Amino acid sequence: MNLPNKLSLFRVVLVPIIAILYLFCDLGMAFQVNVQDAMVTVQWSDIVVLILFAIASFTDFLDGNIARKRNLVTSFGKFVDPIADKLLVNTMLILFAVGNRVPIIAVIIMIWRDTIVDGLRMSASAKGKVVAAGMPGKIKTVLQMFAIIFVMLYDLPFAYLGIPMDQIFIWGATIASVYSGIVYFMKLKDVVMETM
Questions:
Q1: In terms of residue numbers, what domain contains 156?
Q2: pTM of the full predicted structure?
Q3: Is it true that the peptide bond before 157 is cis, omega within 30 degrees of 0?
Q4: CATH code for the domain in which residue 26 is found
Q5: Contact partners, residue 106, CB within 8 Å, separation at least 6
Q6: Can you give the pLDDT at residue 195?
Q7: Beta strands 29-35 and 38-43: pairing type?
Q8: How many domains is the chain partitioned into structurally?
Q9: Do 91 and 15 contact (CB within 8 A), yes or no?
Q10: Interval 30-89: pLDDT, tens
């Protein structure tokens, strides 16, 4: 197994660790900040989860670059890389939605899109066609990752300015998600529609 694929699998392994830490580990208060007359308490567990999420996100950037530069692009890599991304990002978004930190409708739309795209990819794969993640999908993933980082940071430092940057990124990611889903459908509609 090559290095990019190992990095993708490492990202998959980090997902349950992040979820367990987020849900069940109370490591105590790290610090408090006063934002617009409200005290925001940041827990050590939030900081640890944020660091692990940042590491996982960096492996996403790293595995793709290494695969392209060293000519290590494989069908397995094209398959596992987007799955690792979706597991990581969707798990975080679901955790945030449960805690009312992001709008549930945005999370539902993004998960619907991922489910439809996965179905399209499986149909295409059955016909011997492997479709790598395109630029709209990558933009969607980057927006989601920034949204997650700002949610974890309680929108700091933008909270001091009254700018809901976390929500801006969430809705930007939702729009990019819908658009990239349409792009995937247009690429693969012939494969899917031929059996109708």
A1: 3-193
A2: 0.83
A3: yes
A4: 1.20.120.1760
A5: 93, 170, 171, 173, 174
A6: 58
A7: antiparallel
A8: 1
A9: yes
A10: 777 777 777 777 788 888 999 999 999 888 888 878 888 888 878 777 778 878 888 999
